[in-house]
Amino acid sequence: MPASTAPPDTRDIQVPALYLRTLIELTQEMGYESRPWLQAAGIEQEQLTQPTVSLSTKRYVALVRAAVMHTKEPALGLLVGRRLRMNTHGTLAFALMNSASLRQAIALLERFLPVRTNLLTVCFADSATMPQLQFAPAADLDVAELLILETVMLAVRNVFDYLAPGAQAVQAVEFTAPVTPYQGLAQELFACPVRYGAVCNALCLNPQTMDMPLSTADAQALENAAALCQAELDKITRQESLTARIQRSLLVTSGALPSLQTGARMLHMAPRTLHRRLEAEGTSYRAIVDQVRHSLALQHLKNNHISLQEIAFRLGYTDQANFRRAFKRWEGVAPQTMRNQTKP
Q1: Are 93 and 160 in contact (CB under 8 A)?
Q2: Does the pLDDT of residue 96 top 90, yes or no?
Q3: Structurally, what CATH architecture does the domain formed by 241-342 represent?
Q4: What is the pLDDT of residue 17?
Q5: Domain 12-209, CATH among 3.30.70, 3.90.1520, 1.10.3470, 3.90.1200
Q6: Bridge-partner residues for 135, per DSSP?
Q7: Three-state SS letters, the chain
Q8: pLDDT at residue 11 above 60?
Q9: Every domain of the chain and the residues it spans
Q10: Residue 6's pLDDT is what?
Q11: What's the CA angle centered on 15, arms 25 and 10, to 5 degrees?
Q12: 215 pLDDT band (50/70/90 cuts)?
């Protein structure tokens, strides 16, 4: 199969050093020296003394791959997520622990998750019977995708347990990935059924717990903590390239991706200004849309429950033939061929 024609994702992400130190601590307890896989990812020990470590997505994926290969532990993401408790999440933790309800805490997660990680997006799908907190990759995470999803989703489940102990807010967990050989461990750590091959990656929540008053609620403390989170988010946004901002916003768009005119309006600038600024970054709005469609297509093809026609619709193509032509341009093979090749 020919290599992907999409350029690698090289945008910088800010990884809390505490998360990396947790990974190092775990691997050392397992009897493995951390230096070899840190060096394989191009990370120096000195960087871990700073509050955050700046990495490209490509290097972060390399770090995760090296850690798994070094330890030979495919469930490494779950084991790291198990250790990420409330006090590891910085200012976001202060906001969450002062929320009035789980519904309010979820709204804060939707708004401020980027202050901890911008590798995933999170969206609350409300329902009277089974509300879901849905997670999706915000970049091409390659072999690290499931590990990162497991880490973050288990960490969020731990947050819910802290806020509402004994309430069993999470009733089931769903992943789009094929079933893993460590499903039993996943169900033990999530303390609920874990299903694979699902339509989306989600924590399925108990609707009766959404508006239950939380004993740790403090309105004034929440306001102060949210202001700190907003300041952090504003700083990240200022440092983020325009290309990365557009990629992140397009990745959470349902259906047809917005036109240049609509995209410019969403960013509060004129289309010509948007075009000029993207040109200065060496790209164009059309190229970004094409890259996002490529990334989303690869994600959707992993889910055998979604037909090719539905994938084409989700990506904004008017018919399946147009999607097929675009996919052959990206990967050199038809989408059905790619799906057949990636089946477990």
Answers
A1: no
A2: yes
A3: Orthogonal Bundle (1.10)
A4: 81
A5: 3.90.1520
A6: 122, 201
A7: CCCCCCCCCCCEEEEEHHHHHHHHHHHHHCCCCCHHHHHHCCCCHHHHHCCEEEEEHHHHHHHHHHHHHHHCCCCHHHHHHHHCCHHHCHHHHHHHHCCCCHHHHHHHHHHHHHHCCCCEEEEEECCCCCCEEEEEECCCCHHHHHHHHHHHHHHHHHHHHHHCCCCCCEEEEECCCCCCCCHHHHHHHHCCCEECCCCCEEEEECHHHCCCCCCCCCHHHHHHHHHHHHHHHHHHHHHCCHHHHHHHHHHCCCCCCCCHHHHHHHCCCCHHHHHHHHHHCCCCHHHHHHHHHHHHHHHHHCCCCCCHHHHHHHCCCCCHHHHHHHHHHHHCCCHHHHHHHHCC
A8: no
A9: 12-209, 241-342
A10: 36
A11: 125
A12: very high
The alpha carbon of residue 296 and the mean position of all alpha carbons in its chain are separated, in whole angstroms, by: 13
Which tokens sit at 134? 């849905």
Angstrom distance (rounded) from CA 250 to CA 258: 8
Euclidean distance between CA atoms 296 and 286, whole angstroms = 15
Q: Which of 152, 143, 176 is nearest to 68 (CA)?
A: 143
269: its two tokens = 């600038």
Q: Is the dihedral of CA 253, 99, 240, 38 positive or negative?
A: negative
17-30 average pLDDT score? 87
pLDDT tens for 220-274 read: 999 999 999 999 888 877 767 788 778 777 776 666 688 888 888 888 889 899 8
Q: How confident is the model at residue 74 (pLDDT cuts 50, 70, 90)?
A: very high
**87 alpha-carbon distance from chain centroid:** 21
What are the tokens at 262? 């609509």
